[in-house]
Amino acid sequence: MDALTIQEAAQITDWSPRMLRYIERAGLIEPQRSEGGYRLYGPGELQRLRTLRELVTRYDLGLGEIGFAMRLRRDEELAGAMDAWFQAVARRPDDVPPADWLRWEQDKHSKLLALAAAHTRPEPTSGLIEEIPTQ
Amino acid sequence: MDALTIQEAAQITDWSPRMLRYIERAGLIEPQRSEGGYRLYGPGELQRLRTLRELVTRYDLGLGEIGFAMRLRRDEELAGAMDAWFQAVARRPDDVPPADWLRWEQDKHSKLLALAAAHTRPEPTSGLIEEIPTQ
DNA sequence: TCAACCTTGACACATCCGTGGTAAGGTTGG
DNA sequence: CCAACCTTACCACGGATGTGTCAAGGTTGA
């Protein structure tokens, strides 16, 4: 065996065995298993565990947020949706005349919907974009 | 006034006034204010509120996660750190001979530390990378 | 002026998240 | 074979999230 058991891995990475299992359930680091089902941590896992601690403490992140970042990498559709959202949220260009704001926003929204719909069901931009009562 | 009050905005975006205030506190959508302090939602905000609902429901995200994505955009250092983490976590290339795994991982880790340290304090890759007891 | 609406702040509550235990039972290796 | 370690499955618990409601007081606009 060229790998450590959970307790040994925990000691040298400064996590608790409990947390190592939790981290695994969170999908962040999934070690190999022995025949009998024991978790086996190799050098790679150990390094990732240390790096994980760095991330969590230095940037005050939760495991959920790191998992979300991983999801953003793997799920292009999600990444595209976040892209659209971010552009819509980013500074509304002051050089766009007020009368055009709505169209601008709607374009962004349409892009998002199209992107998302393309990968789920062919829901063709339904009644989500109605008139906005300016009262 | 070419903008809606919180109650009107809530109705047409299908959020509750309570949640609109919550979303604002979360830093996701911050509407203008009237002289007297009333929140004023313009077309842009309304569109973003609808898009936000799309994101949250379609991808089952929390406001925190969306806020984290925004943070990832603005904070290059954080983005770099996540980059490094992700590469380290990504499938360990099987063509890298076992004996080199550790070095490979350490390189990634060093990059992360360098990147991060460069922007915080000049902590020169301290004793974080020690020998790994292979017991 | 005054009804209708807004603001902040606080209490409430169900549900996660991050952690630590403990129990019952299987695995390892000297 | 057997002590030492591991596994899964629970209970617990403080803190954060998401959401509602209520109170006390200010703003708006016809």
Query: Could you tell me the mean pLDDT of chain A?
Result: 74
Largest interface: A-B, 53 and 53 residues
Helical residues, percent of chain A: 55-70%
Number of strands of chain A: 2
Distance between the termini of chain A: 73 Å
Radius of gyration of chain A, taken over Cα atoms and rounded to an integer in Å:
23 Å
Strand content of chain A: under 5%
What would the principal axes of the Cα set say about the shape of chain A?
Answer: elongated
> Treating each run of at least 4 consecutive H or I residues as one helix, how many helices of chain A?
6
Oligomer class: homodimer
Low-confidence stretches of chain A: 93-135
Which secondary-structure class do the elements of chain A indicate? Answer: mainly alpha
Order of adjacent strands in the largest pleated sheet of chain A:
1-2
Secondary-structure element string of chain A: HHEEHHHH
- What about the largest sheet of chain A? 2 strands, antiparallel
Characteristic key phrases:
homodimer, 60% helix, 135 residues, 6 helices, DNA-binding, 2 strands, two-stranded antiparallel ribbon, mainly alpha
Detailed description of the structure:
The structure is a homodimer of 135-residue chains. With 135 residues, chain A is mostly helical. Helices cover 60% and strands 3% of the residues of chain A. In chain A, strands 1-2 form a two-stranded antiparallel sheet. In chain A, a hairpin with a 5-residue loop joins strand 1 and strand 2. In chain A, helix 5 packs antiparallel against helix 6. Chain A is elongated, with a radius of gyration of 23 Å. Mean pLDDT of chain A is 74; it is low at 93-135. Chains A and B meet through helix 3, helix 4, helix 5 and helix 6 of A and helix 3, helix 4, helix 5 and helix 6 of B. Chain A binds a DNA duplex (30 and 30 nucleotides) through residues 5-7, 16-19, 21-22, 34-39, 62-64.
